[in-house]
Specification:
Blueprint lengths: L2 H13 L7 E3 L14 H13 L3 E3 H7 L9 H6 L8 H13 L2 H13 L8 H4 L3 E2 L2 E2 L3 E5 L2 E4 L34 H9 L5 E4 L9 H8 L12 E6 L1 H4 L10 H13 L3 E7 L9 H12 L3 E8 L7 H14 L1 E8 L6 H4 L3 H12 L10 E7 L2 E11 L2 E11 L9 E4 L24
Helix pairs in contact: 2-5, 5-6, 9-11, 13-15
The structure holds pyridoxal-5'-phosphate (PLP).
Length: about 450
């Protein structure tokens, strides 16, 4: 495309009014037009699962991303709509029975019990990474790796649609004791003032892009003043490029958002837009292409990350196509994650050995430009652990692993070894190789 053609298409898109943001939650499953042609029993099952796991999907995802001719297998359908298998059989039956009694309290109790059994706070998130200012714990901030602080603005704790596999699902189910959210940005500034070692602030959620630009500005602008010169990079973690690309093109405050991005960059910061993708099909619409171009035109970088998931993206060819499409759009592949040990993990998990094979087979198909994604990586309690491969050393088959990030920075980049286990899906399933009792990072 020539520059003039880009501008022309941009004008065409901008002249079309943004479709109204219309969203469906668990109580409106019967309102989704496309579901009406599916068997009634299927919808009843979805309603059972949606009692436990968060459900929210918008009209753009329904109309533009899901291939309704290929439901239920369609990866974008699996990404957003609840499926029976997402609850273990015993949990499904328990909720179904409780629902059938029609007694609200009974159902509530059953739902609470099942949620508690789904490890709502993996990797010790609630206890281990919460920082303190003047001795007081600060809600809405996590600080695990010294350079990077995560910030959860209270008005960004929802998404344009929810992913069925979300590892932060517990934040969305309405139980405020499970939520992490910052009341306001003052505490973030207080914390950052005291922590000169922090170079990166990662605004996350939910999805910070659900916020009005005005609200996002109130968090970001203070960080542009000279007292925060140590903050070099502002990252925004978001799936809005997939779930609501109008946010960047034609929403009422889209232009103001682009101006804010430019302002951050003009202040000398790097702005890294950390885009969450699971499938190349999320990138095929015109409005998505426009959104990517507009973000890049501000000078912001876009990097991509997302987990490897059973039922959604186990094919190496799909990963290769996704990474290749991304680099062609100017998006840099960043992380391939392993599905975390929470929520519907049993439905989405893939053995570590298979995850590595998929990663390798995808890497083999793309040039070096697209080989920048690290992984498969487990965000576990001690750190981000990457599966580097499977090897045989002195006759013992082992996993070769390394920390990409460690709770202790000295662990980073030290290779270590675990006994090969074809079924292992998470770090806690692994045992040290070579007859050793403990991994080096275990006390
Ligand atoms: C992944 C992650 C980060 C960022 O790590 P990078 O390797 O710098 O992208 C920061 N904090 C937590 C808790 C994380 O899980």
């Amino acid at each position: 495309m020539t520059v003039q053609e880009i501008i022309n298409t941009e004008q065409i898109v901008k002249e079309q009014p943004t479709p109204k943001f219309k969203v469906y939650t668990a109580r409106q499953l019967d309102k989704v037009e496309q579901l009406k042609s599916l068997p009634e029993a299927l919808r009843a099952e979805m309603e059972v699962v949606a009692e436990v796991l968060p459900f929210r999907v918008n009209q753009y995802v329904i109309d533009e991303l899901i291939d309704w001719n290929n439901v239920v297998e369609d990866p974008l359908f699996q990404l957003t709509f609840p499926q029976r298998g997402m609850l273990k059989e015993e949990h499904f039956k328990k909720i179904k029975l409780a629902k059938e009694t029609g007694e609200k309290e009974l159902l509530k109790q059953a739902v609470a019990e099942v949620r508690e059994a789904l490890n709502p706070h993996p990797a010790g998130q609630l206890e281990q990474n919460i920082p303190r200012v003047n001795g007081e714990p600060v809600q809405g901030i996590q600080h695990k790796y010294s350079e990077t602080v995560l910030f959860f603005p209270s008005s960004g704790q929802v998404c344009h649609s929810y992913c069925t596999f979300c590892f932060r699902w517990a934040q969305f189910v309405g139980d405020s004791s499970l939520k992490m959210a910052a009341k306001e940005s003052g505490q973030l500034q207080d914390y950052l003032r005291e922590h000169r070692e922090v170079t990166d602030v990662l605004i996350t959620g939910g999805d910070p892009m659900v916020m009005k630009t005005k609200n996002l500005r109130a968090y970001l602008e203070p960080l542009l003043s000279p007292e925060f010169d140590h903050i070099r990079t502002i990252r925004i973690g978001s799936k809005a490029l997939s779930f609501w690309p109008y946010r960047f093109v034609s929403d009422a405050d889209a232009d103001d958002l682009m101006a804010l991005f430019e302002e951050v960059i003009a202040a000398g910061k790097t702005l890294a837009f950390m885009a969450h993708y699971n499938h190349w099909r999320e990138m095929e619409t015109d409005i998505h292409r426009q959104a990517v171009k507009r973000i890049r035109a501000t000078g912001a970088q876009i990097r991509s990350q997302g987990p490897l998931l059973n039922h959604i993206n186990t094919s190496a060819d799909d990963w290769a196509k996704m990474w290749q499409t991304q680099v062609e759009m100017g998006i840099q592949p960043y992380y391939m994650f392993v599905e975390r040990d929470t929520g519907a993990q049993h439905y989405f998990e893939v053995p570590l050995a298979q995850a590595w094979a998929t990663y390798r087979n995808a890497m083999k198909q793309v040039s070096g430009i697209a080989r920048t994604a690290r992984g498969p990586s487990m965000s576990a309690t001690p750190g981000k652990v990457e599966i580097q491969g499977v090897a045989e050393i002195n006759g013992e088959k082992v996993f070769v692993l390394r920390f990409i990030q460690g709770r202790n920075p000295d662990w980073v980049q030290r290779p270590f070894f675990a006994q090969y286990d074809e079924n292992a899906t998470w770090l806690n399933h692994l045992k040290p190789a070579f007859g050793e009792e403990k991994f080096f990072f275990e006390e």
